[in-house]
């Protein structure tokens, strides 16, 4: 895992970045690896890939962060990327794998009320995706909206959102 994280930092080759991110994402299926990746500062290295201009690299980074977001300690570190993820969802092509990867991460990050306020500005986008997206996109957006609606503090934002 340490070598993969170092490789991710050391290369500009998108194909190598993609493969390293896929491997890290698969490794994150095991909770012990989630802790190891966090302790090796892998979350910030993977999070740094969200700025990559190659959509496939960004998508794989979102998938890895999604798998890593299954524990509270990782969520505390990943939450700094929520607004960036929201912007990626908004700017990604409609129904793209990139957009879906961002929505899956936002679903996990919205399971608790801890980070809902970071998603407030994206509610109009979520509602737009709900009306314009394919069934896969709609289902993922609904998961985010259901999570947000479980928080009474979000009711005003959800009801006042302009679509």
Automatic annotation (TrEMBL):
Where in or outside the cell it occurs: the entry states: Mitochondrion outer membrane
Give the UniProt entry's GO cellular component terms: mitochondrial outer membrane
Q: Where is the Armadillo repeat-containing domain?
A: 1-163
Q: Does the keyword Membrane apply?
A: yes
Q: Name one Pfam family in it.
A: Arm_2
What does the UniProt keyword field contain? Membrane, Mitochondrion, Mitochondrion outer membrane, Transmembrane, Transmembrane helix
Which domain of life does the protein's organism represent? Eukaryota
Does the UniProt entry include the keyword Transmembrane?
Answer: yes
Primary location recorded for the protein, binned into one broad class: mitochondrion
Signal peptide bounds: none
Which membrane topology describes this protein? Single-pass membrane protein
The entry's protein name is ARM10 protein
Which species expresses this protein natively?
A: Scytalopus superciliaris
Taxonomic lineage per UniProt? Eukaryota, Metazoa, Chordata, Craniata, Vertebrata
């Amino acid at each position: 895992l340490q070598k993969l994280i170092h490789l991710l930092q050391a290369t500009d080759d998108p194909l190598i970045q993609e493969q390293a991110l896929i491997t890290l994402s698969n490794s994150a299926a095991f909770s012990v690896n989630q802790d190891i990746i966090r302790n090796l500062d892998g979350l910030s290295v993977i999070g740094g890939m969200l700025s990559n201009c190659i959509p496939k690299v960004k998508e794989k980074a979102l998938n890895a962060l999604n798998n890593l977001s299954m524990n509270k300690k990782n969520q505390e570190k990943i939450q700094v990327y929520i607004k960036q993820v929201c912007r990626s969802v908004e700017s990604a092509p409609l129904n793209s794998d990139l957009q879906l990867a961002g929505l899956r991460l936002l679903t996990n990050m919205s399971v608790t009320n801890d980070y809902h306020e970071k998603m407030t500005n994206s509610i109009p986008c979520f509602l737009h995706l709900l009306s314009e997206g394919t069934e896969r996109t709609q289902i993922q957006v609904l998961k985010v909206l259901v999570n947000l609606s479980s928080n009474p503090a979000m009711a005003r934002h959800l009801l006042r959102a302009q679509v």
